[in-house]
Amino acid sequence: MLQLATLKYGSNVLEKCIKYSSPDLKTEILDEVINKSSVDGDSPFSLMQLIRNNFANFVVQKVLDEASEEQRNKFIKKILTVAPQIRSQNKACRHVFDHLEKKYGVRVPQRGANNPILK
């Protein structure tokens, strides 16, 4: 499923599945994206790669919007783990981080900054 998120039309399909699927299927899709996105930057479908990708970053934002509070908090922690390493790498990254800051009030740390949320 994570490979689908990185493709132009695949990301659109995945976003629609997240938005319009039944509650059980939505939970299953969200759990897969949240739990299978690794924080290991070398993995082809790592969270860093998803955030950097021009198409998958929209899936990341949709997951944040449609997730339960528990799922969202878990995903935000994972995002904050990798954020300092990729904070200003490209426009796709900025989309995700701006979304976190504007919609959820989560300040994304700069490279090398201490993050009190993760302590």
Oligomer: single chain
Q: Number of folding domains?
A: 1
Largest sheet: none
Structural class: mainly alpha
What percent of residues adopt helix (DSSP H or I)?
Answer: 55-70%
The radius of gyration over CA amounts to 13 Å
First-to-last CA distance: 31 Å
- As residue ranges, the low-confidence spans are 115-119
Number of strands: 0
What would you say this structure looks like, in words?
By secondary structure, the protein is an all-alpha fold. The chain has seven helices and no strands.
Short key terms for the protein model shown above:
119 residues, mainly alpha, 7 helices, 67% helix, globular, disordered C terminus
How would you briefly describe this protein structure?
With 119 residues, this protein is mostly helical. It contains 7 helices and no strands.
Task: Give the SSE layout.
Blueprint (H helix, E strand, L loop, with lengths): L1 H4 L2 H13 L2 H14 L10 H6 L3 H11 L2 H18 L4 H14 L15
